[in-house]
Specification:
The protein is of the alpha+beta class. About 40% of the residues lie in helices and about 15% in strands. It has 12 helices and 11 strands. It has a 3-stranded antiparallel beta sheet with strand order 2-1-11. The protein has a 3-stranded antiparallel beta sheet with strand order 4-3-8. α7 runs antiparallel to α9.
């Protein structure tokens, strides 16, 4: 029995979501013919970069750690907007609390995975395949568990009329596990070439990552087989084997070992020493690694200092790099996740007033430094935007009698 027939038999009463757009997907039967074969956009080989490339691993790990550090809470709008009401009339929202089913599910996805495990898996799947899938497990009409699913094994089952018929997870031995659309949280990066596939960051990056990996492998082989001397000593005469052996024995006795490093050397008359520096091939190898590093940083939005590049590193520019990383990379990613959960997860709880939001108020990189804060207050007081007492109130200090007027 084919996958579509399996889904149709298992879910005969599934409500169909009619597609509003006129552009139709190709017939689903055409997709089914390739069932079990790797998707062209999520090949399993992309997953190999995580354990093979130190740069890819480090970049994804930095993003993982940032996402996991940020608390995620479920809120309920105090007065949800009605149809046609302007956004300005939306009232503040309050947390639903740890006992709400949605909050409890996000805090403890399943008996074996922590909240951090779930987000690390999600960020890794997006970094490698451009798509992440959560399988939702219902019990008595309520979602009670979330299980992250490998993106390279997940197949989207299109429908000519309803856009999505569901999803299928291809397990060991090509065993097919069907999912209806409502039982999957589907998070993906936009792909201009295929709307039902996420675009993996590895797609534009894989050539640079491969070059970095091959450069390291080639250098390892060169080191294993290298017989290039670090120094060349020239003599006027051709020494005998005995003289060569005696020279090396005396040289190692005088200069070998940590406590003898950089001792001055005295050569015999007619001998000249030449130190061999980096060859053009060595310089090309170093430049290749830097090129790979820069491409990984560009694609994943991680500044070079955060991946261990200490060239021209200072405390000030490292602090700036961390702030740029949070503002330009992590904050947009958090909004991306919020939108995905709002679309795919929260409707399962039957309350349209629910929303999710990451709390970044405790992230040090986004806070003002004490010097920045003092400089801002000084400028505000000097320009009349704030009074001295308003500044003191912000600092939890008692007002002064002369602090209400202009400075």
């Amino acid at each position: 029995m084919g996958l579509l027939a399996t889904l149709g038999k298992a879910l005969p009463r599934l409500p169909r979501r009619e597609r509003a757009g006129r552009a139709a997907r190709p017939p689903a039967e055409a997709w089914e013919q390739g069932l079990g074969l790797p998707s062209s956009w999520t090949p399993a080989t992309y997953g190999d970069y995580y354990p093979r490339s130190a740069l890819v691993y480090s970049a994804i790990r930095q993003r993982q750690d940032a996402i996991v550090r940020t608390p995620l809470s479920v809120y309920r709008r105090n007065n949800a907007r009605g149809a046609g009401e302007p956004a300005a009339r939306e009232r503040a929202a309050t947390p639903v609390g740890p006992d709400h089913p949605a909050q409890r599910l996000l805090d403890r996805p399943n008996p074996f995975w922590t909240r951090g495990d779930l987000w690390r898996a999600t960020e890794t799947s997006l970094g490698l395949w451009g798509a992440a899938f959560w399988g939702l497990e219902p019990r008595d009409g309520e979602i009670v568990e979330i299980w992250p699913l490998r993106s390279d094994r997940m197949r989207v089952v299109p429908d000519e009329n309803a856009y999505l018929k569901g999803f299928a997870y291809v397990g060991a031995g090509h065993t097919i596990v069907p999912y209806v659309a409502e039982d999957v949280v589907w998070i993906r990066y936009f792909n201009p070439l295929d709307e039902l596939s996420g675009l993996s960051p590895m797609a534009p990056l894989r050539l640079s990552a491969d070059i970095g990996i091959e450069a390291l492998r080639a250098n390892r082989n060169n080191l294993s087989n290298d017989s290039t001397p670090g120094m060349v000593i020239e003599t006027m005469d051709t020494p005998t084997d005995f003289e060569v052996k005696e020279f090396y024995e005396r040289w190692e006795a005088r200069y070998q070992g940590v406590d003898r490093v950089r001792r001055p050397a005295l050569l015999s008359s007619g001998m000249r020493a030449t130190n061999l520096g980096f060859s053009p091939k060595d310089m090309e190898y170093i430049q290749t690694l830097r090129w790979s590093l820069e491409d990984v940083c560009r694609v994943f939005g991680v500044p070079k200092p955060m991946l261990g590049d200490t060239e021209r590193l200072t405390f000030s520019n490292f602090r700036t790099a961390r702030r740029v990383f949070w503002e330009d990379t992590i904050l947009p990613q958090l909004i991306f996740y919020q939108d995905a959960l709002q679309q795919w997860l929260l409707p399962n709880f039957g309350d349209p007033s629910l929303l999710v939001e990451f709390d970044v108020s405790e992230i040090d990189a986004l806070r003002e430094s004490e010097n920045d804060r003092a400089d801002r207050r000084r400028k505000y007081v000097a320009s009349g935007i704030m009074t001295i007492n308003e500044v003191r109130q912000e600092m939890n200090l008692a007002p002064v009698s002369w602090g209400n007027g202009p400075s």
